[in-house]
Each structure stands twice: as structure tokens, then as C-alpha cells.
Design brief:
alpha/beta; Arc Repressor Mutant, subunit A; D-Maltodextrin-Binding Protein, domain 2; five-stranded mixed sheet; three-stranded antiparallel sheet; 11 helices; disordered C terminus; LysR_HTH_N; transcription; transcription regulation; DNA-binding
């Protein structure tokens, strides 16, 4: 069987969309459609049901999905075995990580990888926990980095490599920034700007607010740290943010010391079912080393 058909099938399954799969594979949509139809003919069953919400796996497709991935993993392992004698690690390595780690922690890792292994091409993809776990599982990511106190049970290898400091911030001069302790009742009129669902430390603060306040907290969610920070700096409310992201440019905001937050583990995620190229191994080593050299802050 032509493994390009399996790659196309898994890409459409990943995105539930033929156009998105074509973009990912750098193919014309007509080529993606033709490959799926050819695979359906070979297997003797339809694989996707097209609906207004996307292309969804049929029952037959669900039964072969894991086997298709295993076949591609075997192909990948064979290619690694052939290239195993190569002295210099090379190739693309895709890392998914939260925005703050991509922006403030991983640039030093990119520089170190480029210095040690110039033939490795390292790509960063901003991803929340769910996206990172899904990406490593479906092979769209080689490595995931998540900031989670307690990650979900998974077949993936998820190891703590460091910690990320987070804190609650307000605009400079806000009364709460001068208080050593804060009662929940003092927060009932505050607006909180949190990162979108799936951000572990934002979700944890939302749970604490929901339990501690007499009424539902006033919360606005953003997909960007800079957007949340801008609202705080403008005096519109409070936000829980990575300390590294805020201390890189600290003017206009200050910590709220009366609302301490725990350090959150930074965890490296890989799939043990998939053979790791030397390039992926070396990038994992550099990331882990960077975290070990700065244990109180995570990476960088």
C-alpha cells in the first residue's frame, strides 16, 4: 500500500477538513480528494462522511486509524535505521509549547540547537495543553511542552523538566499591589483577564475565584498574553501571567503579592510508540538541559 495515501487519510482525519489537509501536505485539494478515494477503493469502504461541520471518520475509518498510524511509524523507524549511521543529526523538529514558552523561553534553545547542530531545523508551534498532547499523539508535533500541575492520563511520556513561575498582576499603583494579603471579598468587583481555556494556570485561578467569590467571577478570556497584559496595564483589571513574560517588560504593571500562585511544572511530552530521530533526541536534550540550568523559572 502506498503510504502517501495513509498520510493523506490521517491528515484529513486530524483536521476534519480536506482543505486544511491540503494546506498541511502542500497539495492541491483535488489531489487530497483523489488519494482518499483511491484508499477507499483499496479498502472497499468509505472513510469520511462529509457534513456541514466537516469531514468525519466513518466507523470503518475509526477501526483502521490506529493501524494506519502504526504503519507510518514503522516506515519512520525504517528510515531512521537506514540513517542511523549519520554523524550529524539533521532534519525538521516541530515543538509545540504555550505562547509564553515559545516567546520567552525557547529562543535560547533555538540558538543553542543552531550552535550545536546546524543541520537541525527547529520549528515552534504555539499550543495549549490539549493541542500539544493531540499533536504529539497524531505526529504533527515531535515534542510537546505543557505547563500543567496534573496532566491527564495518557499513553504519552510526560516528564517534569522545570517550573514556570506565574503571578497575579495589576496596573502599577493599583491598591491591591500594596497589600500583603487580599481577601476574596475584595475581588468581587474586579475583572480578570485570563488566557483561553486549556491554559493550566488560568484555569486554576478561575476555579479558585469561582469557589472563593460569592458570585461568578467577571472573566474575559484571551488567546494572547500581550492582549491580557495590555488590559492590565490600562487599569482594566487583573491577570495571572508568567513572571518571565512580564518581567521582560515590567513597566506599567506590578504583582499582587496578596494573591500568590504556585509554580507550575513544565513537562516535556513525547510519544514512546514512535522511534525518535537523532534530531528529536538532541532537541529534547537541549530543552531539558536549559530547564535544569534555570530550575526556578523553567527554560531559558
Amino acid at each position: 500500500m502506498d503510504t502517501s495515501l495513509l498520510k493523506t487519510f490521517l491528515s484529513v482525519a486530524r483536521w476534519n477538513n480536506f482543505t486544511a489537509a491540503a494546506d498541511e501536505l502542500h497539495l492541491a485539494q483535488s489531489t487530497v480528494t483523489a488519494r482518499v478515494k483511491l484508499l477507499e477503493r483499496e479498502l472497499g469502504a468509505p472513510l469520511f462522511e462529509r457534513t456541514p461541520t466537516g469531514a468525519h471518520l466513518t466507523e470503518a475509518a475509526k477501526r483502521i486509524h490506529e493501524q494506519a498510524q502504526q504503519l507510518l511509524d514503522l516506515e519512520h523507524s525504517m528510515a531512521l535505521a537506514v540513517r542511523g549511521h549519520e554523524a550529524e543529526p539533521q532534519g525538521d523538529v516541530v515543538v509545540g509549547a504555550p505562547e509564553s514558552i515559545c516567546a520567552y523561553r525557547l529562543p535560547s534553545v533555538i540558538a543553542e540547537v543552531r550552535k550545536q547542530h546546524p543541520r537541525i531545523n527547529l520549528h515552534l508551534v504555539p499550543s495549549d495543553t490539549r493541542a500539544s498532547l493531540a499533536g504529539v499523539s497524531d505526529r504533527s508535533l515531535d515534542i510537546g511542552l505543557i505547563v500543567e500541575e496534573a496532566p491527564p492520563t495518557s499513553r504519552l511520556d510526560i516528564d517534569v523538566i522545570g517550573h514556570e513561575k506565574v503571578a497575579v498582576f495589576a496596573a502599577q499603583g493599583h491598591p491591591l499591589t500594596q497589600q500583603k494579603s487580599v481577601e476574596w471579598s475584595e475581588l468581587s468587583e474586579e475583572v480578570f483577564y485570563l488566557l483561553e481555556d486549556g491554559c493550566g494556570y488560568s484555569d486554576a485561578l478561575f476555579r479558585d475565584l469561582s469557589e472563593g467569590l460569592p458570585r461568578a467571577p467577571r472573566v474575559t478570556r484571551f488567546g494572547s498574553i500581550e492582549a491580557a497584559r495590555a488590559c492590565v496595564e490600562a487599569g482594566l483589571g487583573l491577570a495571572v501571567l508568567p513572571v518571565a513574560a512580564c518581567m521582560a517588560r515590567s513597566e506599567g504593571i506590578a504583582r499582587v503579592p496578596g494573591l500568590p500562585r504556585p509554580d507550575y511544572p513544565v513537562r516535556l511530552v513525547i510519544d514512546p510508540r514512535r522511534a525518535q530521530s537523532r534530531a528529536v533526541q538532541k532537541v529534547s536534550e537541549v530543552i531539558t538541559s536549559a530547564a535544569a540550568e534555570a530550575p526556578s523559572a523553567g527554560l531559558g
